[in-house]
Write a structure and sequence with these properties.
Blueprint lengths: L1 H15 L7 H11 L13 H34 L11 H15 L8 H21 E2 L2 E2 L1 H25 L2 H12 L7 H20 L1 H7 L3 H6 L4 H20 L8 H13 L3 H25 L8 H24 L4
Antiparallel strand pairs: 1-2
Helix pairs in contact: 1-2, 1-3, 1-13, 3-8, 3-11, 3-12, 3-13, 4-5, 4-6, 4-7, 4-11, 5-6, 5-11, 6-7, 8-11, 8-13, 12-13
C-alpha cells in the first residue's frame, strides 16, 4: 500500500516538474476535470493543459509501465534462475529485445501494425532468454558465473548486430538505433502507452500467479518437484513472461539497465524473499525508480535531456559490482 501511494505521489510530482512548472494541486485538478469532476484548480500557466496531457502524462505513465515491467522481470528472473544476479539487462535479454525492435524499425516492417516493434522486441527477448537459460545450466542447476559470462557474450553479440544495422541503414535508422542504445522516454506518446501497457499488465499478472511455485522452487529443484511443481514448465513459462515484460519495457524506450537487478534487492531487504509480496512490490518499486530517474534526466540540465539509460547504468553499475562481490563471498569463492 505504501508503494502504491508513493507511485501516485511521485507521478503527480513528476508531471508538474519541468520547464513549465505546474503545482501538484493543479495537476490533480486537471485530472479531476478530465474525468468529469469539477474540483480543484486548473493549470494557470499558458498551455499548461497541453503540457500535461500531450507531453508529461504520457511520459510519466510510460515510465511507470517500463519500471514496473523491468522490476517484475528482474524479480521473476532471480526467482526462476535461483540467483540474485539475474536481470534482463545483465544477461542480455534487453539487448536482444532491442536488436529485434531495431531490426523492425530499420527494415520498415509493419506486419502487425502498431504492435510490430513490440512483437519484434518480444521475439528478440524470448530468443536471448532461452539461449541464456540453456547455456547457463549445468548438472541440473544454473551457475552464477556461467549466467553472468553468458550475458556478457550475449550483450557483445547484440552490440555487434546493432552496429551492423547502423552501418546498413540511413541517417534516420542510425539515430533510431542510437536511441535504443542510450535509452530515453523522449518519444513517449499515448499510442506507446496503449501498446506497452497491456503487455506489462499481462506479464505482471502471470508473474504474480507464479509466486507460490517460485517460493517452492527456492527450496530446491528436487523438493519443488516432490511438492508437485513442474519445474521445467515453470521455467519455460517464466522465460516467456520475462520476454514479454522486457519487450514491453524496451520497445519504446530502448535499453534501461539495472532496474531489474537493484529494485528486487531493495524490496527483498525490506519485505523478505516471499514472491507473493516481492513480485508486485518490485513492480511498484521499479515504477517509482524509473519515474524519478526520468524526472532527473529531463531536469538536471537546463534545456537539455540526459539519456535515462546512462543514468540508470551509472547507478546500477556500482550496485552490480557490490552484489557480485557479496554473492561471491557468500558462495565461498567460485574457484
Amino acid at each position: 500500500m505504501g508503494l502504491s501511494v508513493a507511485v501516485l505521489v511521485v507521478g503527480v510530482f513528476a508531471a508538474g516538474s519541468g520547464q513549465v512548472p505546474i503545482s501538484p494541486s493543479e495537476v490533480v485538478g486537471s485530472i479531476l476535470h478530465r474525468i468529469g469532476l469539477e474540483a480543484g484548480p486548473l493549470p494557470s500557466v499558458a498551455q499548461g493543459e497541453n503540457a500535461l496531457w500531450v507531453v508529461r502524462f504520457p511520459r510519466v505513465v510510460l515510465a511507470a509501465i517500463v519500471g514496473a515491467a523491468l522490476g517484475c522481470a528482474g524479480a521473476l528472473m532471480q526467482g526462476v534462475f535461483g540467483n540474485p544476479l539475474a536481470e534482463p539487462g545483465v544477461v542480455g535479454v534487453s539487448s536482444g529485445a532491442a536488436v529485434g525492435a531495431a531490426a523492425a524499425i530499420v527494415s520498415g516492417a509493419s506486419l502487425f501494425g502498431p504492435w510490430t516493434v513490440a512483437v519484434a522486441a518480444f521475439a528478440g527477448g524470448l530468443f536471448t532468454t532461452a539461449a541464456v537459460y540453456a547455456m547457463s545450466r549445468s548438472g541440473g542447476r544454473t551457475e552464477v558465473v556461467t549466467l553472468v559470462l553468458t550475458g556478457v557474450a550475449v550483450n557483445a553479440t547484440a552490440g555487434a548486430l546493432l552496429g551492423l544495422l547502423m552501418f546498413l541503414t540511413d541517417d534516420d535508422g542510425v539515430r533510431a538505433i542510437a536511441f535504443w542504445q542510450l535509452g530515453s522516454l523522449a518519444s513517449a506518446t499515448w499510442a506507446a502507452v496503449t501498446v506497452a501497457g497491456p503487455c506489462a499488465i499481462l506479464g505482471i499478472t502471470v508473474a504474480a500467479l507464479l509466486a507460490r511455485k517460485l517460493d517452492l522452487l527456492s527450496l530446491g529443484e528436487r523438493p519443488a518437484r516432490h511438492l508437485g511443481v513442474d519445474t521445467e514448465r515453470l521455467r519455460r513459462t517464466s522465460i516467456v513472461v520475462v520476454a514479454l515484460l522486457t519487450a514491453s519495457a524496451v520497445a519504446f524506450t530502448g535499453i534501461i539497465a539495472f532496474i531489474g537487478l537493484v529494485v528486487p534487492h531493495l524490496v527483498r531487504m525490506v519485505a523478505g524473499p516471499g514472491h507473493r509480496v516481492l513480485i508486485p512490490a518490485s513492480a511498484l518499486g521499479g515504477a517509482i525508480v524509473v519515474v524519478l530517474g526520468d524526472l532527473l534526466a529531463r531536469t538536471l540540465l537546463e534545456y537539455q535531456e540526459l539519456p535515462l539509460g546512462v543514468l540508470t547504468a551509472a547507478v546500477g553499475g556500482p550496485c552490480f559490482f557490490w552484489l557480485l562481490r557479496r554473492t561471491r563471498a557468500r558462495a565461498g569463492g567460485w574457484g
